[in-house]
Design goal:
single chain; mainly alpha; Hypothetical protein af1432; 60% helix; globular; binds magnesium ion
Length: 334
């Protein structure tokens, strides 16, 4: 067979920055396997993630607004796609490995609970084993997907685990995804909050708008261009102090005015009751979980596996299971 992969590996060596992660120099997979004749290791990981069931479930998981009825609100899936594209744009500009960034970005939120961060907070509070969505994303690709995990490369797994702001990814592509995640959510959450009527565009802090731009697209451009300017041919990725400060100020503003806004959070008490109800039920009735989860109890303990099952649910699946357990059904006749 024509040596497509080797050709591409050579191309990476020629065109990528000395600071890029080369697919031919990957630290490899937990279970060694023969390489694909066509695709590089990172291209293959991207495809493994794209085709997995957890990826498709992101479509019905909350980003910020719970189960929005409007067609244009972000979901966890569209957020993921925006992160992927922003990370690829940054990596293309910096001559880093776009395929690696894409794989990390597509996998970064696979472990997110239903109902956004509220779901995560509740699980973390009630499960003694603790719960963090980035660690859960790694569990999904390492253990839960496809019967025994996706067996991804070290670099993709590392980027998924370390995508949060306080993470320390070992590749620049991982750092690019971490920035891309923040750039994506700060900007698209502004857009969605305005759409939802939770935020008036005139409320956005004037100084941030003056520095970053007065539209969704301009603000994303400013942030990406700044990273490209500041980081080109450097062994680290960063923003200039001025843009970073304005971005952080905007992020803080979003926390105060949107993420913690009582209007956007009006249903959160119900989310807590629902997640707690499911957690208690499956802790008492572990046999009621599907076999693909139940089979892990002997190895990881009941609490961790109940977290796995609940975290894997979409918003609507969680509601359906809760209703089946706790809401009496109306009689429809025999
Ligand atoms: Mg994210």
């Amino acid at each position: 067979m024509t040596e497509f992969r080797q050709y591409y590996e050579e191309l990476e060596k020629k065109i990528l920055s000395p600071y890029a992660a080369l697919s031919s120099e990957s630290k490899g997979r937990m279970h060694p396997m023969e390489k694909c004749p066509l695709r590089t290791e990172f291209q293959r990981d991207r495809d493994r993630i794209l085709h997995c069931k957890s990826f498709r479930r992101l479509k019905h998981k909350t980003q910020v607004f719970l189960q929005p009825e409007g067609d244009h609100y972000r979901t966890r899936l569209t957020h993921t796609l925006e992160v992927s594209q922003i990370a690829r744009t940054i990596c293309r500009a910096l001559r880093l490995n776009e395929d690696l960034a894409e794989a990390i970005a597509l996998g970064h939120d696979l472990g997110h609970t239903p109902f956004g961060h509220k779901g995560e907070d509740v699980l973390n509070k009630i499960a003694k084993c603790g719960f963090e969505h980035n660690e859960q994303s790694l569990r999904v690709v390492d253990i839960l997907e496809a019967g025994g995990g996706l067996n991804l490369t070290f670099e993709v797994r590392d980027g998924i685990l370390n995508h949060k702001k306080d993470g320390k990814p070992s590749t620049l592509e991982g750092v690019a995804v971490s920035y891309a995640d923040r750039i994506a959510y700060i900007n698209h959450d502004i857009d969605d909050a305005i759409r939802a009527g939770v935020l008036g565009p005139e409320k956005l802090p004037k100084r941030c708008i003056r520095i970053l731009g007065d539209s969704h697209g301009r603000r994303i451009n400013t942030m990406i261009f700044d990273i490209a300017e500041k980081s080109f041919d450097k062994p680290a990725i960063g923003m200039s102090a001025r843009i970073e400060e304005a971005t952080e100020e905007l992020r803080d503003f979003m926390f105060e005015n949107v993420y913690l806004n009582p209007l956007a959070k009006s249903e959160e008490g119900k989310v807590a009751a629902l997640v707690e109800g499911l957690f208690d039920h499956f802790m008492k009735n572990p046999d009621a979980m599907p076999e693909e989860y139940g089979k892990h109890i002997s190895q990881y303990g009941c609490e961790r596996v109940v977290c796995d099952y609940i975290a894997g649910m979409t918003d609507r699946y969680a509601i359906r299971i809760f209703e089946g357990l706790f809401v009496p059904e109306s009689w429809r006749g025999l």
